[in-house]
Design brief:
Helices cover about 30% and strands about 20% of the residues. By secondary structure, it is of the alpha+beta class. A 4-stranded antiparallel sheet has the order 2-1-3-4. A hairpin with a 2-residue loop joins strand 3 and strand 4.
């Protein structure tokens, strides 16, 4: 009997605790609705932590809404990527936030 693939629902309270930041990851980016910038397209990372850092710290913010992280056949959307980045379990040093005006 074949395995059924469940729809992924993001539980912010437990997902980051169970998430393996050392797993290989793929990052897909499409053009955002309000963006005129060229999307990333596709990029593969040895560690999910590096993909998350790239998505949050390197991509223009307007592209994050059209970006997906795929880890172990589970997709995470822009808001979910941000929650993984902001988790206390995130293993890398975060870039200092820019000060607000």
């Amino acid at each position: 009997m074949g395995l059924l693939k469940k729809m992924h629902t993001f539980d912010h309270a437990t997902e980051a605790e169970l998430f393996d930041y050392s797993t290989e990851a793929e990052l897909f980016s499409t053009k955002g609705k309000k963006s005129r910038r060229q999307p990333l397209g596709y990029k593969r990372f040895v560690r999910a932590a590096d993909a998350i850092r790239f998505a949050i710290e390197e991509l223009p913010p307007q592209l994050l809404s059209g970006t997906y992280l795929e880890v172990d056949e589970v997709r995470y959307e822009g808001k979910e990527i941000r929650h993984l980045y902001e988790s206390i379990d995130y293993p890398l040093v975060r870039r200092a936030a820019a000060s607000s005006p």
